[in-house]
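Shipment paperwork, digital attachment
Item: protein structure file
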Amino acid sequence: MNNYGEVLRQFCPAESPIETMVCTSDSKKLIIGQVATDEEIPTLSVIDIDSGEIIKVIEKSDDWENTVWKLVIDKNDEYIVYLKQVFDRYQIVTYNLKTEEKKLLMETNVDNKYLGFIIGPNNELVMGIDNIINFFDLASNKLIKSIRLDEEKTITGETYCHTSLAFSPDGNLMAVGGLKNGEVLLYDLQAQQIINRFSANFEYPRRIAIDPTGKFFFVLDYYTHGVFIWDLDTYERYMEEFFNEKTELITSIDFDPKNPKQVAMGMITSIVYVVDIEKPKDLFVDELHKARVYNVLFTPDGKKLISSGEDWHIVIRSVG
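Attachment content:
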């Protein structure tokens, strides 16, 4: 069992909420997106984990503009894709970390509809717009393919509802949420059909995830009214008496690379904790943040647990 909690560093990169955060595959750098202010501060920056220093600024605030709301990084640490706000418009941009080239993928006046993009199994950008799932080549920004699900979106009038996506580790299965209240679809990419539906007492997902072993499927309710888990071998709810609509206030999760059944969770109550979902029991809890925790992640080498959020701060803890 891993031990969690020795604080290695706690720091404020810029005086602004940290909306989104990713880690490079070598576990050496963080990339964070922050809310723009009336001062010129970094809103998209690369941070050295060991020193806590900003080593590259990609976007800056410009009189309240250039907030970065969402960020993903490809598997080779070559590209990031981010959603930023410019006045009342929203841009999705690809950025080459090596050449520093920026390319505009799309621009829209609706932000939340586009928040569900992720990196796909073949290192492409995958974005769901209602029931259409688009795959883009990162180098060219060109559309590779589209999948139209035989399922219409019935959630209307909910401005925060976006099409959320997750892939199984082998890349054969794609989970899709945000089309119907309380339901997530499981789509077989080889058979090109929906093979299962997961239903529970949630509205629509804030995030869906499949654990690194491909065993468990997680749904976080958007309004933090629950965490729901299914066993992908049986398609049955897992530990329903513990993981349900009463498991409230959780904004983000990540899996310990050394033991994926140990899951870190961040909460709107400033708490970060690690739970063993097999027991289930809490392995670690702290309240070092002073406001909502928006992001939790393990470094890919499994040696650090990192969190950030509304209080401007990043907390780096040892794992071992």
